[in-house]
């Protein structure tokens, strides 16, 4: 297989046709130019990727050489083309000279137009790609009441441009990482030099350079390949589709990862308290923002432990329930053929089923199915004696609390932990719950993300970072203070 361009046009075109055989959208257009139209050239491109056919790139190539209207191109010789483009003339369209077939293949597949000229062992490449992409719109997964409404799209360069527009400083660095496989997707990672921890950056670069030699189609592929612990339920990185969140993460010393073809931005490292923070926390007044954060922390505790606490108390520790409430619970559970544990498992399964159905169905139908399905199934379960009203309330409250988590993958991890906690509560009661919570806490304090402790600044205790965890200080003290890293 040849790697260099031949000076004869026939073997070059034959190689292109052999590589891209059975590609009906490959266009090969021959041209004649020069005295008596004796010189030959060929334009090669994919007409599905070069949507703008108005520009004749070969004629423009010839027109750049002479000062007058080129006409049929009879006044241009091969020597003139080689002389002008070897010296990188100021052409109307940005041209690149190539002499390697591997680069030619990659540029053709990315939407470039290639011109082979008989008698020259180089080709002229024009970036002519004009693929339609989704326009910048309001983020679907991260809506806010107050703040920017700019979302990333599936175009890598456009996403980088929007982030650069927010951080206009030469310390803003972006590096490209090419991938192997059939997709040949381009990965980009960015950081703010002088703000990012050098040790964290070194560790990240080491892991990103060890990615499997295969197809990378989405940022979640990278997360799975570079995370510290694969089998933990807790996510070690954050996702966002908002350019303001990506810019804020960079200003806080994070590393962001973008992939061509997806709008998801991966933020590294992702720590526990950051997963419960929303961009709107910084767009609201301090008192309101702290109130919302405390509400979110309470929601975390409810989403994690409410069903198991109910099972433990109703099964082993009924003396902890006030008498009037205990009588109401006993009355509501009369006729229920299942213990509290089985009842909770059934209702949790139904809730998760409705949630998954609501996500997979078309948006107008999905919301209706989620709401109507929950009402109908809940009422039917009570009427049929499958579940008690109090268990329906517990399940619904748990689900609503999990929806208040800003990061979807973090909310999923809480739902995964419910089952082992409910099992411990059903077997050992409150003692089992203590064992479960201690195991979770032990796991959290041992977990790391790119070498940074997951529970920082709580474990290890770093007083300087408590200014922006469960509560945040006024913005005037946060803006003027560089966020410290684990080693500060």
Describe the 3D structure.
This protein is α+β, with helices and mostly antiparallel strands and 488 residues long. The protein folds into three domains: 9-127, no CATH class; 156-270, no CATH class; 294-453, no CATH class. The chain is built from 16 helices and twelve strands. The protein has helices spanning 9-19, 57-63, 78-86, 101-109, 156-166, 198-208, 219-226, 243-251, 286-315, 323-332, 340-360, 363-383, 389-403, 408-428, 430-446, 475-479; strands at 26-33, 39-46, 95-98, 112-117, 123-127, 172-178, 186-192, 238-240, 255-259, 265-268, 448-449, 452-453. The strands form three sheets. The chain has a five-stranded antiparallel beta sheet with strand order 1-2-4-5-3, with helices on both faces. The longest helix is centred in the middle third of the chain and has 30 residues, at 286-315. The model is unreliable at 484-488 (pLDDT under 50).
List the helices and strands and how they pair.
Layout: H1 9-19, E1 26-33, E2 39-46, H2 57-63, H3 78-86, E3 95-98, H4 101-109, E4 112-117, E5 123-127, H5 156-166, E6 172-178, E7 186-192, H6 198-208, H7 219-226, E8 238-240, H8 243-251, E9 255-259, E10 265-268, H9 286-315, H10 323-332, H11 340-360, H12 363-383, H13 389-403, H14 408-428, H15 430-446, E11 448-449, E12 452-453, H16 475-479
Antiparallel strand pairs: 1-2, 2-4, 3-5, 4-5, 6-7, 7-9, 8-10, 9-10, 11-12
Helix pairs in contact: 5-8, 9-13, 9-14, 11-12, 11-13, 11-14, 14-15
């Amino acid at each position: 297989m040849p790697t260099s361009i031949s000076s004869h046009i026939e073997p070059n075109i034959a190689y292109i046709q052999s590589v891209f055989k059975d590609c009906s959208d490959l266009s090969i257009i021959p041209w004649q130019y020069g005295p008596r139209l004796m010189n030959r050239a060929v334009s090669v491109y994919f007409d599905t990727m070069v949507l703008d056919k108005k520009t004749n790139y070969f004629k423009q190539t010839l027109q750049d050489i002479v000062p007058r209207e080129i006409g049929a191109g009879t006044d241009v010789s091969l020597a003139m083309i080689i002389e002008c483009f070897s010296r990188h003339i100021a052409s109307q369209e940005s041209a690149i000279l190539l002499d390697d077939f591997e680069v030619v293949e990659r540029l053709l597949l990315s939407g470039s137009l290639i011109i082979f000229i008989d008698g020259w062992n180089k080709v002229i490449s024009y970036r002519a790609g004009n693929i339609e992409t989704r326009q910048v719109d309001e983020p679907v997964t991260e809506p806010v009441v107050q703040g920017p409404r700019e979302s990333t799209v599936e175009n890598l360069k456009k996403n980088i441009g929007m982030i650069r527009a927010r951080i206009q400083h030469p310390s803003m660095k972006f590096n490209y990482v090419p991938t192997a496989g059939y997709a040949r997707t381009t990965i980009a990672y960015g950081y703010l030099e002088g703000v990012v921890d050098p040790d964290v950056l070194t560790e990240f670069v080491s892991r990103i350079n060890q990615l499997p030699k295969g197809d990378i189609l989405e940022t979640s592929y990278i997360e799975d390949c570079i995370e510290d612990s694969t089998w933990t339920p807790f996510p070690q990185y954050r996702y966002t589709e908002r350019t303001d969140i990506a810019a804020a993460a960079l200003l806080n010393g994070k590393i962001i990862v973008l992939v061509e073809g997806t709008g998801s931005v991966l933020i590294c490292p992702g720590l526990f308290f950051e997963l419960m923070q929303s961009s709107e926390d910084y767009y609201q007044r301090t008192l309101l923002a702290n109130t919302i954060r405390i509400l979110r922390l309470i929601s975390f505790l409810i989403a994690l432990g409410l069903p198991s606490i109910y099972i433990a108390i109703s099964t082993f520790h009924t003396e902890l329930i006030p008498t009037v409430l205990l009588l109401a619970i006993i009355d509501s559970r009369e006729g229920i053929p299942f213990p509290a544990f089985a009842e909770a498992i059934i209702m949790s399964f139904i809730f998760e089923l409705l949630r998954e159905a609501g996500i997979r169905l078309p948006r107008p139908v999905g919301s209706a199915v989620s709401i109507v399905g929950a009402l109908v199934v809940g009422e039917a379960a009570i009427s049929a004696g499958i579940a008690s009203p109090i268990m329906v309330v517990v399940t619904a409250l748990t689900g609503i609390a999990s929806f208040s988590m800003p990061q979807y993958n973090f909310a999923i991890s809480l739902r995964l932990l419910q089952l082992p906690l409910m099992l411990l509560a059903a077997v050992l009661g409150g003692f089992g719950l203590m064992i479960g919570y201690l195991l979770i806490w032990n796991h959290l304090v041992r977990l790391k993300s790119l070498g940074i402790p997951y529970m920082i600044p709580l474990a290890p205790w770093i007083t300087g970072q408590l200014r922006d965890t469960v509560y945040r200080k006024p913005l005037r003290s946060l803006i003027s203070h560089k966020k410290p890293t684990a080693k500060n």
